[in-house]
Every structure is written in C-alpha cells, then in structure tokens.
UniProtKB/TrEMBL annotation:
Keywords: Repeat. The keyword Repeat applies. Residues 47-154, 168-250 form the Ig-like domain. It comes from the Eukaryota. The keyword Protein biosynthesis does not apply. It comes from Nezara viridula. InterPro entries: Ig-like_dom (IPR007110), Ig-like_dom_sf (IPR036179), Ig-like_fold (IPR013783), Ig_I-set (IPR013098), Ig_sub (IPR003599), Ig_sub2 (IPR003598), Striated_Muscle_Regulatory (IPR050964). This is Ig-like domain-containing protein. It holds the Pfam family Ig_3.
Length: 260
C-alpha cells in the first residue's frame, strides 16, 4: 500500500507521474505543469529501496471519521465514507451489518491504470428512530476490500423538528482522480434528491455534450472524458440544483503517463 507523505515546498518540482511511479513507489520529474501540493500527498511516496520494484497491485484504504452522530428527529441525517484506492473504490453503506445502499456498480470498460479518492454519503431526509444504529461502510478496489470502524447514529427527540424538503445533496463524488493518458475516465457525481446536474470544465466552460466532444455528462450525473490527454489536467466542478437550493463539489483530474 502507498505511504503518502508531505514534500517540502523546495522539492515540489514538476511531477507528471507514471503508472510505475505509483505502483513501484517512484516519482519521475519532467517538464510539465506543477502538481498542487494537495495532490502530491497522494503521489509522492517513501522510497522502499532503490532496487525494489513492485507490480501494481489492487489496494484500498478508508479514512476514519467521527464515531458518534446525533441528529434531531425529522432533520436530515448525513454520514460520510471516504476511501482511496486503485482501481477506483466502490463503496456501500451498512447499518447494523445490513446493506442500506447498493454497492456502486462496477465499470466494465477497460480504462487502464487508475487511482481515485471517493466520497460516498448516506443521506436520510427525515431522521427517525429507524435510522438509529451502527453504521459501517465497505470499500472495494479490484480484489481488495476495506471495512470502516462503526459510527453510532443517535436520533434525539429533544432536537425534533418538522421534516422539510431539502436541497439536493451530492452523495457520490471524487476529490481526486488519476488515470492513464489515452484511456477513458469517468468522474462521479451522484445526487440525492431531484436536481439538475451540470459540470464546469477546468477552463470554466459549461460541459454541453456537443457532438464530437470528448466530454459528456451521463444520465447518472457522472462526467465522462474519452482519450484522456495531459492538457485535461485540472479542476472540474459538478453542480446540483433545484428550486430549494444547490450543492457543488470539485474533482482534481490528473492524467498519468503509461510505461507500457
């Protein structure tokens, strides 16, 4: 498994990462755009010996979060699960060891080597005693599985409020996506509630699904980019909006060199 660490600013050079750099714990400097420091935390890894070379293996890790959540009856319950892995993790929520969400579908399209940090949020608009219990999430990356520690959810009658229709909530998204150049990449944006979903590219342009474009917003809300190029690197933002309110998230997309 990768062991991220922070790189001193003086050493934050131009880093277009190769698949072997991620798989073998190496990073190769080259002439390219400087990678933001928050991405470097996931790209630059501790050396394991100059002669050591490991094949790229499936791996996944869940970031632990708060252990107890108290919500008023009738209020919106929100519980987050965050996982990073290769290939892109698929996440499922369980309450008292019983699934309460479907496992995110597996993409059968061959997309080359990839790595992603995925956030999946369980949302219940009107919390009730039936929502109390121990919540855990499972993350699957290829043949590897990780299970979070439990989060206890308590629904408090003393904090009771009238249930109201809520603004949309983006429930599946990716802060970071890395994919080999030349392959297709899908950036998730799934929404809880009825909402209009739109994407804005790294250049600040609305993605319009124009004929012949490499950029397309799918019915699921995901953004698909075909034949990924180095110039596609940057921040992409997903917006979900209805008559009550809106939600937005951003993904940093990093194209990687392939050494195959």
């Amino acid at each position: 498994m990768l062991e991220p660490f922070d790189v001193p600013p003086a050493q934050q050079q131009n880093f277009p990462v190769t698949t072997s750099a991620v798989g073998r714990n190496r990073v190769r400097p080259a002439d390219a755009t400087v990678v933001p420091s928050f991405v470097l935390r996931y790209l630059v890894v501790k050396p394991q010996g100059a002669q050591r070379e490991e094949s790229m293996k499936d791996w996944v890790k869940i970031s632990e979060s708060e252990r107890t959540i108290k919500v008023g009856r009738g209020q919106r319950l929100v519980v987050d699960c965050e996982a990073i892995g290769s290939p892109s993790p698929r996440i499922q929520w369980l309450r008292d060891n019983r699934p309460i969400t479907q496992l995110m579908e597996e993409d059968n399209v061959v997309r080359g080597f990839g790595l992603a940090k995925i956030v999946r949020t369980y949302v219940a608009d009107c919390a009730s005693p039936s929502h109390e219990g121990e919540y855990t999430c499972t993350a699957i990356s290829g043949g590897e599985t990780a299970i979070s520690s439990s989060t206890q959810v308590i629904v408090d009658d003393d904090m009771r409020s009238e249930c109201q229709p809520g603004a949309p909530k983006i429930s599946v998204w990716a802060p970071i996506v890395m994919q080999t150049m030349g392959s297709d990449v899908r950036i998730p944006c799934r929404v809880h509630g009825i909402a209009r979903v739109s994407w804005v590219s790294k250049d600040g342009q609305l993605v319009s699904n124009a004929p012949g474009s490499r950029f397309r917003v799918l019915e699921s809300g995901d953004l698909e980019i075909t034949k990924l190029k180095w110039v596609d690197m940057g921040k992409y933002s997903c917006y979900a909006e209805n008559h009550i309110g809106k939600d937005t998230v951003s993904t940093f997309l990093y194209p990687m060199l392939s050494e195959n």
